[in-house]
Amino acid sequence: MNRTTLLPALGFAALCLALSSETDEAPILTQEKGVTIINTTALADDVEGYVSTTPVKIYIRNNKVMRVEALENEETPKYFNLVEQKLLRKWDGMTVKKAETAKVDVVTGATVSSEAVIENVQRGLSYYNHVKH
In the chain, pLDDT over 70 holds for what percent of residues? Predict the structure, then answer.
């Protein structure tokens, strides 16, 4: 390939790489061994905790929440650990419909992070309800 054709080809390859990296977000809904997993990274990218976004994965089987798992975030570990310990299990075992509207209390000392996680869970469950039903 001569220089005249190589430069445009490299430019096109760079453009393709840039576009693909912008769309490489994790899928919102995946299936794994009979479990539906909702990832709220894209669904709630506008929901901020105290420092950053607080995405979660919600695991659902037979229309019941199995567990909620926090994903990587920039929240202060000392406070976000409280959220993980005291909040994430609140939805376990609930039907998706009940969990979507459940009134869950925030964790004292981690109020803003708690509110963000609750919003993430509600959006994820709402998405599930609209896609599955």
Answer: 81
Mean residue pLDDT of the chain comes to 86
From the list 102, 131, 123, 126, the residue with the least C-alpha distance to 56 is 123
Cα–Cα distance measured from residue 58 to residue 37, given in angstroms and rounded to the nearest whole number: 6
Q: Which residue's entry shows tokens 């790489």?
A: 17
Q: Is residue 128 exposed (0-12), middle (13-18) or buried (19+ Cβ within 10 Å)?
A: buried
Residue 37 and residue 16 in contact, taking contact as beta carbons nearer than 8 Å: no
Q: Report the alpha-carbon distance of residue 51 to residue 11 in Å, rounded.
A: 37
Bridge partner list, 53: 48
Q: Do 87 and 114 contact (CB within 8 A), yes or no?
A: yes
Q: What would the pLDDT profile of 55-110 be if each residue is shown by its tens digit?
A: 999 999 999 999 999 999 999 999 999 999 999 999 999 999 999 999 999 999 99
